[in-house]
User: Which sequence fits this backbone?
């Protein structure tokens, strides 16, 4: 079948559904459309439980709300509820109204049915039937094939699953009747947890635990043989005879109901929440994705119901059980472990760049980062040198700024030019006055087109542009340093702290320079100028006489005036620098916050990667892994300690992130934080490191074939791990034993079944192996030894070719038997009978069954 709808009822159903979703995701990294199979999910539970699940879409969840006790005052308005609530039932239910109102079934089956009935009669788009149809239509639309297999997973001991399963089956058969199309397009299978005979955890019992299961099995048996036809909960009117329509007439209620407990045939117990849920999921996976010929043939075989002496059917033969054992060489898990180890290294390099030749890149504390000063070389590299901040040198080059010269050389040039021009004149007496006029004009009006003070006044409005330009330059330099591997993020964080501290430190330094300039002007240069002017006046009329010192005086005057205007300009420049560096400091703080945010974001990814690493390469859990985790970890340590490989891998990862930023605009940390999120960054690390790790693992096979770690066939691995026949026989015996069905049988009832009705237990054992060709024909040897250890196995019909080279699977099923042979049934019936005795017998009977007046065959006959 192409389309599969998995329905989880109550807590048990939800647990199994989660396990199958995990299994499919591990296999295909996609839980919808793989290998030509389409999957959909429906989860039915109380509103409290459904709301807690955030992994499913809203349309995949059916919430059962509480039933208002007022409904019972107006039952005629709710004919479907009225159809299974007698006047006596009504009085008994009103005594339990607290459960109805708050939406809990309290492990009572009748309340579970009421919650479902309330849902079906409620808001149409949120009802079970509406979402059932929606799910089926989605499957058909995706596959373009009008056929669906329904898989219902539930426990039988609770209230919601056990109480609603009869009506869930009935509504599926109503909406998708297999008789209305040839070829039985709509098949329905049940996977049901039956409580243990000897209760392991008394806390599970809220009063009806084991009795519920007997009642539910009785009703499932009854609908299967056609003696119980539940009323239609999705009917808003009565028939002409005043009754609500009943369903399941004339068709099989279900193809097969697979029962399982927390004990196998030999009584070995397993923890339900972990191993059994995973095993049921494994079995479901095999049924959905693997064409198990023998099991399918058994399921499609027509099993006659068991009848009493007058020919009335009493027991259905549509019950089965299963066991499963999967042996896997966890190649995907190994690949993930090695890849994530490479990711961890690439992230650690990105964050810290602290290499240890034994263990690869390691973490580093802030104080251990080896950066402690900001010198003039660094200031120059990052446009923070004085000459940039006082605009002696342009920060941004354009048609105007490219003509600028540095302050000292520029004044030296102009002073010399003015002096040369003055000295060409004939009237030496006017040299000083004309020279002063030229200098004053240059300083006040012509310096860089506007005069010194006006120039810096204009540049005040450009401070933000300059600060932003410096920020972009610094960020680009730091980003390129990070991208090249020269700087880690933590180094950059510390470096930015030092730059900000340096900006703070330089403001008083600039103020001190201004004070020094002003002092020098007032106490050194102006006195020198005044002395030169005084000496010039003394020369007076002797200026044209040979030997006059006028040229020496003019030279001294020229030099003093040059220093004067240079220091005046520098004073304005450093005053400007104080305002500019304050803005630069704010821009540096912006970069710092951005880099810190990126640092913490990637640190979060590192935590996630380390969590994922911890989940992989552990010792076997719910299925056998033919692989020594320590061997994988030791090989990975070798890979991690290869400095050339890890540095190259880290470089590829950083460049991969940079490439995601595109080519438009400047690349930097701000750009990265704006464009990329945690998912895209982590995915990039993983994709890059997967390529590197795969290449390294493939190279290992070439250099040392004994250390082959990927592209491994499970049979090849078994052959190398189990080198003697005795070891191999021991493994196969383990497989046969551990794949036993999760259900115990009553041997006396089994014998009675065979002797009285001539019906033997029908077993099927399916062995799924990948193809494997070697000189010793090891695959055939394994098959022969398995056949010897498991006589029920048929090589002709039960040997399957596993599409996965890394795993083998054994499925053991007992198919088509009546409930009378199940070992637990007698105990469950005893608990059921106990509930039907005593002062509250009427209440218990009503709560145990979906209807009070139905006659159900005895399951022990």
Assistant:
């Amino acid at each position: 079948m192409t389309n599969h709808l998995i329905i989880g009822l109550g807590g048990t159903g939800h647990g199994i559904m989660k396990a199958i979703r995990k299994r499919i995701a591990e296999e295909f990294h996609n839980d919808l459309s793989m290998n030509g199979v389409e999957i959909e999910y429906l989860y039915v539970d109380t509103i409290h439980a459904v709301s807690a699940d955030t992994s499913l879409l809203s349309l995949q969840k059916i919430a059962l709300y509480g039933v208002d006790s007022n409904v019972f005052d107006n039952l005629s308005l709710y004919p479907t509820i009225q159809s299974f609530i007698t006047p006596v039932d009504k009085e008994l239910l009103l005594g339990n109204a607290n459960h109805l109102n708050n939406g809990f079934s309290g492990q009572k089956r009748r309340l579970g049915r009421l919650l479902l009935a309330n849902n079906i009669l409620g808001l149409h788009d949120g009802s079970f039937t509406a979402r059932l149809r929606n799910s089926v239509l989605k499957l058909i639309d995706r596959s373009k094939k009008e056929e669906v297999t329904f898989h219902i997973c539930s426990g039988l001991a609770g209230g919601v699953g056990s109480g609603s399963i009869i009506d869930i089956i009935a509504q599926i058969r109503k909406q998708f009747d297999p008789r209305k199309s040839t070829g039985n397009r709509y098949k329905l299978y049940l996977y049901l947890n039956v409580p243990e005979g000897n209760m392991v955890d008394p806390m599970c019992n809220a009063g009806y635990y084991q009795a519920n299961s007997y009642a539910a099995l009785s009703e499932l048996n009854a609908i299967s043989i056609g003696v119980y036809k539940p009323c239609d909960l999705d009917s808003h009117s009565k028939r002409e005879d005043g009754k609500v329509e009943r369903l399941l007439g004339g068709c099989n209620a279900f193809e097969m109901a697979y029962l399982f407990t927390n004990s196998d045939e030999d009584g070995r117990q397993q923890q339900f929440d972990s191993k059994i849920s995973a095993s049921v999921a494994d079995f479901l996976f095999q049924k959905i994705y693997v064409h198990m010929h023998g099991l399918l043939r058994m399921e499609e075989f027509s099993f006659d119901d068991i009848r009493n002496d007058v020919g009335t059917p009493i027991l259905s033969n549509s019950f089965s059980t299963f066991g499963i054992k999967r042996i896997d060489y966890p190649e995907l898990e190994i690949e993930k472990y090695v890849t994530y180890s490479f990711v961890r290294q690439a992230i650690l390099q990105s964050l810290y760049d602290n290499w240890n030749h034994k263990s690869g890149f390691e973490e580093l504390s802030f104080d251990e980062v080896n950066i402690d000063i900001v010198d003039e070389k660094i200031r120059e590299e990052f446009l923070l040198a004085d000459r940039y901040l006082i605009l002696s040198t342009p920060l941004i080059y354009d048609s105007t700024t490219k003509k600028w010269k540095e302050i000292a050389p520029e004044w030296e040039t102009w002073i010399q030019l003015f002096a040369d021009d003055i000295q060409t004149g004939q009237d030496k007496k006017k040299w000083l006055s004309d020279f002063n006029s030229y200098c004053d004009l240059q300083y006040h009006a012509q310096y860089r087109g506007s005069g010194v003070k006006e120039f810096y006044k204009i540049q005040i409005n450009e401070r933000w542009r300059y600060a932003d330009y410096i920020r972009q330059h610094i960020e680009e330099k730091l980003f390129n340093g990070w991208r090249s591997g020269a700087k880690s993020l933590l180094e950059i964080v510390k470096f930015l702290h030092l730059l900000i501290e340096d900006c703070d430190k330089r403001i008083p330094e600039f103020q001190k320079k201004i004070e020094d300039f002003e002092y020098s002007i007032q106490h050194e240069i102006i006195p020198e100028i005044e002395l030169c002017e005084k000496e010039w006046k003394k020369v007076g009329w002797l200026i044209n006489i040979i030997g006059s010192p006028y040229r020496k005086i003019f030279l001294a005057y020229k030099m003093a005036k040059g220093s004067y205007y240079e220091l005046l300009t520098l004073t304005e420049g450093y005053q400007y620098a104080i305002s500019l560096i304050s803005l630069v400091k704010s821009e540096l703080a912006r970069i710092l916050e951005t880099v810190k945010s990126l640092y913490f974001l990637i640190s979060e990814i590192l935590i996630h990667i380390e969590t994922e690493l911890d989940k992989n390469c552990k010792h076997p859990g719910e299925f056998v892994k033919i692989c020594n985790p320590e061997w994988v970890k030791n090989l990975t340590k070798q890979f991690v300690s290869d400095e050339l490989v890890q540095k190259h891998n880290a470089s590829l990862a950083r460049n991969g992130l940079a490439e995601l930023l595109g080519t438009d605009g400047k690349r930097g940390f701000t750009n990265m934080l704006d464009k990329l999120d945690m998912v895209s960054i982590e995915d990039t690390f993983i994709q890059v490191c997967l390529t590197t790790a795969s290449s390294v693992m493939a190279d290992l096979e070439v250099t040392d074939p004994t250390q082959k770690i990927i592209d491994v066939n499970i049979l090849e691995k078994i052959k190398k791990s189990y080198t003697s026949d005795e070891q191999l026989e021991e493994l196969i015996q383990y497989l046969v034993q551990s794949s036993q069905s999760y259900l115990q049988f009553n041997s006396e009832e089994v014998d009675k079944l065979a002797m009285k009705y001539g019906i033997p237990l029908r077993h099927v054992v399916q062995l799924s192996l990948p193809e494997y060709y070697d000189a010793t024909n090891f695959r055939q040897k394994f098959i022969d030894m398995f056949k010897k250890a498991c006589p029920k196995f048929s090589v002709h019909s039960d040997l399957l070719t596993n599409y996965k080279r890394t795993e083998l699977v054994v499925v053991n099923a007992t198919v088509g038997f009546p409930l009378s042979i199940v070992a637990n049934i007698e105990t469950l019936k005893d608990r059921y009978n106990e509930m039907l005795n005593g002062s509250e017998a009427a209440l218990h009977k009503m709560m145990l069954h979906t209807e009070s007046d139905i006659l159900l065959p005895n399951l022990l006959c």
